[in-house]
Amino acid sequence: MRIAPVVVVLLTALSIPAFASSDAKVPDEQMITALEQRAAQAEPREQCFLYAQLVHDTIEFSALQYQAGDVDKANGLLKKAQEFTHKITSALAVNDKKLKAAQILLRRTAFRLTELLHAGGPDDNHELLKQTLAQLNQAQEDAMLQVFKK
């Protein structure tokens, strides 16, 4: 009779990763464009998180483009991510909504970008990856300092 609880625990453990991965949406151009429009029209106190999400999705989509071999498109997306990162630092305000969540998302995105940098690929895009990572790290630090000011 002890087998039943073990089976339930085992089935639960095996189904959680499948359930969690089904929610993850792979970013595409339409999602990025829609989020960009939403961020541009959002209230100033919501823009920081929306731009952080936009940077994250843009870098994820860029990684997919690198994997597909479309280096030019991936580099273009990294340049857009740099623009969005600049908008994050401009949008930081004391009363930002979801500021801590934005800071955490920026940290995770910086980690993902570091993985891309270490994964290799064409040498001509290493400098662009390094520049984007430096800007992203600076935005994350600025957001973290703003969180501690609250």
Low-confidence stretches: 1-23
Number of domains: 1
Summarize the main sheet.
Answer: none
Q: What is the number of helical segments per DSSP (H or I, 4+ residues)?
A: 6
Apparent shape: globular
Helix content: over 70%
Question: Could you say which structural class the secondary elements and strand pairing correspond to?
Answer: mainly alpha
Oligomerization status of the protein chains: single chain
Give the ordered list of helices and strands: HHHHHH
| Structure summary, number of beta strands | 0
Q: What can you tell me about this protein's structure?
A:
The chain is mainly alpha-helical. The protein has one domain. Helix 3 packs antiparallel against helix 4 and helix 4 runs parallel beside helix 6. The longest helix is centred in the middle third of the chain and has 25 residues. The N terminus is likely disordered.
Annotate the secondary structure layout.
Layout: H1 3-23, H2 29-41, H3 44-68, H4 71-91, H5 99-119, H6 126-149
Helix pairs in contact: 2-3, 3-4, 3-5, 4-6, 5-6
